[in-house]
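# step 3/5: fold
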Amino acid sequence: MKRLVLIGLLALAGYFAVAGGEYSVLDARRARAELAARHAVVVAAERRIDSLQARIDSLRHNDEALERLARERYGLIRDGELLYRLTDTGPDEESPEPDAR
């Protein structure tokens, strides 16, 4: 009888150690998984920051990169250049007819 009670108490203590209490093994696993997920987010953010910092440095110190940005994003041109804007008309859209004067 004492042996059965001792086994029961050990089983109860083992269960409480694994699944019970405030800091159980299951909670520790969840915390490790959450830590790994947050670490991945931090690593991705650090890569993005490094990429943006490299872009900033390039724009500060490379006139060609700055000119390319100004041309592509803002449509700026040099004096004497002509800017041609091409639009994509789909098969359902009619191209504008020139005025017949």
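# step 4/5: annotate
The mean pLDDT is 85.
# step 5/5: archive (pending)
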